[in-house]
Amino acid sequence: MIIGSTRGGFADALRQWRTRRRVSQLELAVRAGTTQRHVSFIESGRSTPGRSMIIRLAESLEVPIRERNELLLAAGFAPAYPHSDLNDPQLAPVRAALDRILHGHLPYPAVIVDRHGDLVSANAGFHAITRAVDPHLLAPPASVPRILLHPGGLAPRIVNLDEWAWHIIDSIQAENARNPSDRLQRLAAELVGLIPPRPRQLSSHHLGFAVPLRLRTGDPDNPELRLITTLTHFGTATNVTIAELRLEAFLPADETTSAALTELVTR
User: Fold this and answer.
1) Of 27, 39, 50, 171, whose CA is between 20 and 30 Å from 218?
2) pLDDT over 70 (residue 145)
3) Distance CA 202, CA 196 (A)
4) Global pTM?
5) Average pLDDT over residues 208-224
6) pLDDT exceeds 80 at position 135
7) How far apart, in whole angstroms, are the C-alpha atoms of residue 98 and residue 233?
8) Which of 155, 148, 138 shows the shortest CA–CA distance to 250?
């Protein structure tokens, strides 16, 4: 269904996304199964693409589906992807699946977050390592990056905060560069003000993103948890809400941590 004509807005938006992805008109044309001439005509406003072509171009540029809806609207078409509240009865099977994933990861911490890093759901493992976090940080909407790096959160317990915290900042900034968001930009700026300056010289043990999160426990028998993280997104989702969810799972980097997490969760 065509709902209006804003051809210039679509042409500008498509060019911005192509520039942001650093893709040439020729490369985009090859990915989308069209010609460079056609892409050039679309970006100049000389050609009006159909709905299917807009979706192909957006998919070829890996545009998030929320923004694909915006591209369709800019071209005068109705959105193609539904945007439901997570509590919608139609998403009950998805919520059940997410709960199973979180439960299945126990005793290790895991969370579901939205596109801004706000906590959607967490398992008992995550609650166990955040028991001493200031309650206001856990009040909805609770930001997982803020919980990790705020002085009232886990930051005072992170042994390697000066190095590890910058992984969080860099990840947020990279996501904001890829898919711009005022909220992500503000969050990154806030967190930069909370953590130590970026080390000018990294330690000889620095392994980039492979460096574990080292977390003090206060337990003399198991004084430190060593955790590595994985991030999973729901890449085949066609609902905006589901597509924007991320699963962040913490895994033990050694057997001592595995045993300590098991004990923490069962207390």
Assistant:
1) 171
2) yes
3) 13
4) 0.86
5) 78
6) yes
7) 12
8) 148
Q: Output the six-digit token pair for 67.
A: 């923004």
> How far apart, in whole angstroms, are the C-alpha atoms of residue 144 and residue 150?
10
- 3-state DSSP helix/strand/coil % of the chain, to nearest 5: 50, 15, 35
Q: What is the pLDDT of residue 182?
A: 93
Query: Which residue's structure tokens are 């390697």?
Result: 160
pLDDT value at residue 220 = 73
pLDDT at 163: 83
Are 56 and 80 contacting, i.e. CB atoms less than 8 angstroms apart? no
237, with CB counted inside 10 A (0-12, 13-18, 19+), is: middle
Cβ-contact 265, 128 below 8 angstroms: yes
Alpha carbon distance 248, 231 (integer Å): 5
Q: Which of 180-184, 206-210, 228-232 has the lowest mean pLDDT?
A: 206-210
Q: Are 227 and 173 in contact (CB under 8 A)?
A: no
Mean pLDDT computed over every residue of the chain: 90
Q: Which domains does the chain have, with CATH numbers?
A: 7-74 (1.10.260.40), 89-266 (3.30.450.20)
